Amino acid sequence: MSMSKVKLGPLQITRQQERDVRTQFGAICYRVRKDKVQVLLVTSRGTGRWIIPKGWPIAGATPADAALREAWEEAGVDGKVKGGAVGLYSYFKRDDGTRLPCVVAVFAVKVRSLMADFPERKSRKRRWFSLKRAAEVVDEPELTQILRHFDPRGLA
Questions:
Q1: How high is the mean pLDDT of the chain?
Q2: Concatenated DSSP letters of 6-37
Q3: Which DSSP state fits 140?
Q4: SS3 labels along 33-92
Q5: Residue 115: its H or E element
Q6: Going by C-beta distance under 8 Å and a sequence separation of 6 or more, which residues neighbour residue 76?
Q7: How many CB atoms lie under 10 A from the CB of residue 6?
Q8: What is the pLDDT of residue 142?
Q9: pLDDT of residue 12
Q10: Which of 90-104, 126-140, 142-156 has the highest mean pLDDT?
Q11: CA distances in angstroms from 143 to 14, 18, 77, 86, 118, listed in the order given
Q12: In Å, how far are 8, 120, 145 from 41, measured between CA atoms?
């Protein structure tokens, strides 16, 4: 089954799962300009690396809704999720000197507009990249592959 066919419902997160689960939901925020796909990356707050917006599950929200919320909070994106998850990647999140293994389910978000006023505007930079350049500047090898093969055509 392709990732684009995966549909996930609202999550019910228990207190135990909040400590054990290292799952996050991320957004490939995109637009099409002159028939070329561009993706919006943001800087991480700690190291300033280029990343996609991502965050923890939100109790009662679908994974797609959580990804969309992260796109708003971290990048000021007003957009819409297109299709199901487009891929998965893993990385280690650094948290108070601890490395937490995380798996990120990635959703495509078609950007309608970017807001100037958004929650993390003072702690992040955002920039549009071509797919090729975005794949070059992110550090996670699996995310690099997702970006290299990302094609929003055909997403519902």
A1: 88
A2: ---------HHHHHH--EEEEEEEEEEETTEE
A3: -
A4: ECCEEEEEEEECCCCCCEECCEECCCCCCCHHHHHHHHHHHHHCEEEEEEEEEEEEEEEE
A5: none
A6: 114, 115, 116, 117, 118, 121, 126
A7: 14
A8: 95
A9: 53
A10: 126-140
A11: 28, 24, 20, 11, 25
A12: 25, 14, 15
pLDDT tens digits, 40-63: 999 999 889 999 999 999 999 999
Q: What angle do CA 16, 72, 27 make, to 5 degrees?
A: 70
- State pLDDT tens for residues 132-151: 999 999 999 999 999 999 99
Structure tokens belonging to residue 62: 């679908």
Radius of gyration of the chain (CA): 15
Q: CA–CA separation, 72 vs 85, rounded Å?
A: 18
CA distance 156 to 152: 9
Provide the residue count of the chain.
156
Amino acid making up residue 102: C
Q: Name residue 76's amino acid.
A: G
Residue written as tokens 């996930």?
A: 8
The reported pTM is 0.85
